[in-house]
Task: structure prediction
Amino acid sequence: MQKIDFDGTYFNPKDVLECGQVFRFKQYKKGYKAFTADKACYVYADGNKTAIESDYPDYFYNYFDLEREYAAVIEEIKKFDIPFLTRSCELGKGLRLLNQNAEETIFSFIISQNNNIPRIKGIIERICDSLGDKREFMGEEYRAFPTAARLAEKDADFYKTLGAGYRDAFIAVTARRIADEGIEHLYGLEAEQLKKQLLTYHGIGPKVADCVCLFGFGKAASFPVDTWIEKIYREDFGGTLKDRNKINAFFTQTFGQYSGLVQQYLFYGKRQNL
Result:
């Protein structure tokens, strides 16, 4: 077990894990146990620092995006001179974009559509319990997120019994495709081409595709649009467009390479009733 200490000013575990970009975590002692693919860590606030304890320190250094200098990024975002965004950055400066396992992100966000976080977490947990390999961390057993090949062994009815609802076929069909094709060919694509390719997978629409681009493939110019973002667009940007694709274009054209982080800050700020 190794420990990483990091400046807590720009790394708040609660804000990072509970902002809707990830679903496999649980409260534990002073913080959280976080799970990704077949790995786990314990992350918690420790005075003015945030600590990560894990057997895979390099993996989680990258997972929590600790290489990026968020203080500098926030200063650049403030230059857009949008009061609500500036306030959101200040309040949510402990946010970070996670670099998640791409396969897991695809299935997690297929499950997330038209769903609430407790239910999403429950479905994912049941899938892991049923199909994931056993692992142990800090004296407790957990299950790895199953590979697409393992998911592909089950049909839609199996996922329905786990509570996936109408998403059952999405999981089964997409798992079979990824098991057959892999996803290696997706990594080298630019954000726009990656999104187009993701939209060809069963059960992936524009919002899910943007989430996968941002959280699974690190495409920082992606900007997922959901009901919260529509509300922000109308109330804080005075927007009149109704089509989510056009709203997405408005934000990505406005914020460019900072789109993904701006989306997270705006989402956070709105939920905090700024």
